[in-house]
Structures are given as C-alpha cells and as structure tokens.
UniProtKB/TrEMBL annotation:
One Pfam match: Macro
SUPFAM superfamilies according to UniProt: Macro domain-like
Name this polypeptide is given: O-acetyl-ADP-ribose deacetylase
Source domain of life: Bacteria
Gene3D superfamilies in alphabetical order: Leucine Aminopeptidase, subunit E, domain 1
Span of domain Macro: 1-177
Amino acid sequence: MTTHIIDGVTLTLQQGNIVAVTADAIVNAANAALAGGGGVDGAIHRAGGPTIMQECRKIGGCSTGSAVATSAGNLPAHYIFHAVGPIYQGHADEPQLLRQAYQSCLDLAEQYQLESIAFPSLSTGAYGYPLHLAAPIALKTVIDHLHNTSTSLKQVIFVLFDGRTLQAYQKALQALLADH
Ligand code: AR6
C-alpha cells in the first residue's frame, strides 16, 4: 500500500478486493447495459445483493465515458457509482472516454459531497485497455481534479486486484508526481 497527500487529500494505492473496502462510494467497472458481468461487476453484485441490480434495471443503461449512482446494498458504502470505460480497440477517442469515466465518478462524489471514493482499474480487465496506458490516465484525472476543484473528498483509494496492476499504478504515480 502506498499513500500520498495531494492538495490535502489522501491518495492511496492498495492491492485487494474492492468489495472489502469501506468508502462513501465504491466504483463499479460496469458495461453500457448495466447488465452485470464478471470481474469487479460480478463481485459487487454478488456481495452487494439484488437491490443494486434492481436499481440498475430501472436506470436502464449508461453511455461509455459516463457513470450513474445506485445505493450500495449490503456493501459498506453509501453509493455504487457504475462507470463505463471504453473497450480497448486502439481508437483515438479511447483515452478521453476513459478519462471521462473517472471524471464522471468524481463529479458524482462532489454532487453528493462525499469524503471518500474507491476506484478499481477501469477497462483493464475484460475491456483490454493496456495497463501502462490506462494507469496514467486514471491517476492524472484524479490528480487534476484535486488540483482544480475545491473538493469534498478527503480520501481517494485505488483498489488494485493483483500485484501487476498495483505496480503499474505505482510507477505511473511516481512519474506524474515527478512532473509536478
Ligand atoms: N476488486 C478489485 N479489482 C478487481 C476485482 C475486485 N473484486 N475483480 C477484478 N478486478 P474488469 P473492465 C480487476 O474486467 O475491464 C465486466 O464483465 C481486474 O483484475 O472488472 O472495465 C463488466 O460487466 C482488472 O484489473 O472491468 C463489463 O462488461 C480491473 O479490475 C466488463 O467486465 C478491471 O477489470 C468491464 O471490463
């Protein structure tokens, strides 16, 4: 686990399962149909219980690069933010869509005046986004937001499932902080 203070906000990178983390909002790596699936999405619906899917069905869907909020069922959070990252195909708009998926969650956190949010590594599992490209986008979106906004957030946690993902985020964060 590594912790940095950025503009007074604690940014943590830790390895683990996101359903075991307590935060005001937990971010789900969802699909545009909000239909559930494997990876983070499967873990969140299994651990959170059926009310989350009931709310997803009512909402009906979410465009790529956006996020919607539901309650968190049995999970130790107030909200689940279902964010839809791009499926990686190497198209020019994908970095921007990935950035917008993170930014939409940060905007929801400000709207609800949350103090803590936990992100998984969006798009880098089933959606195939290369880690060395996705990690700097994820981190830069958060760091820029903390620089530019008078935020309600006190803690942003990246919960990274395996050692390879944690290392990619650690490397990307060091490079971004060295640039400042
Ligand atoms: N906690 C934290 N990270 C996890 C967990 C977990 N419990 N499980 C997997 N990861 P993915 P995507 C990591 O595939 O690429 C689903 O079917 C995983 O190792 O969950 O955005 C949805 O329904 C990887 O590093 O999300 C969509 O259809 C990262 O989380 C689609 O997959 C993201 O992997 C979304 O694909």
